[in-house]
Amino acid sequence: MTNIKSLKWLFLAITAYALNSCYSFKSAGIPPGMETFYVAEFDNTSPNVVATLSTNFAQKLIDKVRTEGKLTPTEYEPHVEFSGDIIGYNVTSVAPEEGQTTAFNRLDIRIRIEFKNNLDDDPKKSWTNTFGFFEDYASDVNLLDVQDDLIETITDQIVEDIFNKAFSDW
User: Fold this and answer.
1) Which of 90, 110, 137, 159 gives a 20 to 30 Å CA spacing to 20?
2) In 10 A of CB 36, how many CB atoms?
């Protein structure tokens, strides 16, 4: 019986070691020497947008890079820079039902991001990309009643996608 217990512990130890060697979570894919970053205020270029979205989004991106990337925010000669525009903030009707009504509405947010890596002269290390995400909500619900929660969910996903593109080699 003790041999079986010993084999179980040995198996668990080998599995833990294998998993630990496969994954590395040390500050995502941040290269050595990269220590600072800057996030510019995002312009609202979408015809429909919540006035506080750009400020809140920039702060959310700052918090993500600072806490998970372990980088220090600075305005003076940052190693990486994020800037961009909120280019889409749209509500559309989806899932039509009989009688020309819809079951759901969709809030869709699109943000154009310019990422500049000031530590590397390789142009492939800097990029411009559009990120977007959406959330559906019931058509009988007023957007103003759910807007804050929808924006929170959508921008969380967009920030995650931006962070992964900037600092992961997937």
Assistant:
1) 159
2) 17
What is residue 114's DSSP assignment? E
Rounded Cα gap, residues 116 and 111, in angstroms? 16
| Predicted structure pTM score | 0.80
User: Mean pLDDT for the chain?
Assistant: 85
Tokens linked to 166:
């900037």
Following CA atoms 124, 125, 130, 136 in sequence, which dihedral angle do they give, to the nearest 10 degrees? Answer: 130
What CATH number should be reported for the domain holding residue 53?
A: 3.30.160.150
- Output phi, psi for 75, to 5 deg: -100, -15
Mean pLDDT score, 27-44: 87
Secondary structure (3-state) at 60: helix
Q: How far is CA 22 from the centre of its chain?
A: 24
Report how far residue 82's alpha carbon sits from residue 167's, in angstroms, rounded to the nearest whole number.
Answer: 12
Among 147, 166, 78, smallest CA distance to 108 is for 147
